[in-house]
Design goal:
It is found in: Cell inner membrane; Endomembrane system. The chain is an all-alpha fold. It has ten helices and two strands; from the N terminus they run αααααααβαβαα. The chain has one domain. It has helices at residues 2-11, 22-27, 32-56, 65-87, 89-95, 106-114, 121-151, 159-162, 181-184, 186-220, and strands at residues 153-154, 171-172. The chain has a two-stranded antiparallel sheet with strand order 1-2. Helix 1 runs parallel beside helix 7, helix 4 (65-87) crosses helix 5 and helix 4 crosses helix 6 (106-114).
C-alpha cells in the first residue's frame, strides 16, 4: 500500500512527472483558494470516474470504451459544475471555463483508460484518489508560491470556499507589500512549476546517490552486514 501511494503522489506524480493537466494547473493556481477549489473538483471527478469505469468494465465493449469514458467524465463534470455554481458561486465565477474544461484533462481520461478499465472497483477508487491528490497538492503548492510572492498573503478570499468564517483564515505574511505582478500572471505559474520540478528532481537524485553509496559500501565490506 505504501508503494502504491508513493508511486502516485511522488514517483509518478501526474503534474511533476507526467506533466498532465497543465492548463488548469497553471491557469487557476494564482491563489491557494483557487487552486484548492479546482483541486477538490479534480479529485472528485477522477475518483467518481474511476469508480464508474471500473464498475461497468465487465459489460463495456472495446469498440465503444473511449466515447463511453468521455460521456461519463462529461456527466460527472457537469454535476460538479452545477454543485459549485449552487454552493460556491463566487469561486465558480472565478474559476470560470476551467471547470467544464476538466472534461479534457488528460489525467482523468488517462486513469480511466490505463487503470480503472482494467482493475477492480476499490483499487480503481484508491488509484483515482491518490493520483488526483498528487495533482491537487502540486496545484496548491504553486498557488501558495504565487500568492505569497505576488500578494504577500496566504489563503486570501478563503470565504469563497469556507464561508464567512473563512475570512479569518487569511494570513498576511508580508505587511504593506506592494506585490509582484509577474507572480500572479501566467509566467509566474511556469516559474513556480519549474521550481517544484527542479526541487523534486534534486531530491530524487540525492536519494539515488545515497542508495548507490550505501550499496557500494555494503558490497565493498560484506562483513559489515
Amino acid at each position: 500500500m505504501r508503494d502504491f501511494i508513493k508511486t502516485r503522489l511522488w514517483d509518478n506524480n501526474a503534474a511533476l512527472v507526467q506533466m498532465l493537466g497543465l492548463c488548469p494547473l497553471l491557469a487557476v493556481s494564482n491563489t491557494v483558494i483557487n487552486a484548492l477549489g479546482m483541486g477538490i473538483a479534480t479529485v472528485t471527478v477522477v475518483v467518481i470516474t474511476n469508480f464508474l469505469v471500473s464498475m461497468i468494465r465487465p459489460i463495456t465493449r472495446q469498440e465503444i470504451r473511449i466515447p463511453l469514458f468521455v460521456l461519463l467524465i462529461a456527466s460527472v463534470v457537469t454535476v460538479i459544475e452545477m454543485v459549485m455554481n449552487a454552493y460556491f458561486h463566487q469561486l465558480y465565477l472565478i474559476l470560470g471555463i476551467f471547470i467544464p474544461l476538466i472534461v479534457t484533462n488528460c489525467l482523468i481520461m488517462g486513469r480511466a483508460e490505463a487503470y480503472a478499465s482494467k482493475n477492480p472497483l476499490w483499487s480503481s477508487v484508491k488509484d483515482g484518489f491518490f493520483v488526483g491528490l498528487g495533482f491537487a497538492l502540486v496545484m496548491i503548492a504553486i498557488g501558495a508560491i504565487r500568492e505569497l510572492i505576488g500578494q504577500g498573503t496566504l489563503f486570501s478570499q478563503a470565504h469563497l470556499l469556507f464561508g464567512d468564517w473563512g475570512r479569518h483564515l487569511t494570513l498576511t505574511l508580508i505587511p504593506e507589500y506592494s506585490g509582484f505582478l509577474v507572480a500572479v500572471l501566467p509566467p509566474g505559474a511556469f516559474f513556480a512549476l519549474a521550481l517544484l520540478v527542479a526541487l523534486k528532481n534534486k531530491r530524487d537524485a540525492n536519494q539515488k546517490e545515497k542508495a548507490r553509496q550505501s550499496h557500494k559500501a555494503t558490497t565493498s565490506n560484506p562483513e559489515s552486514t
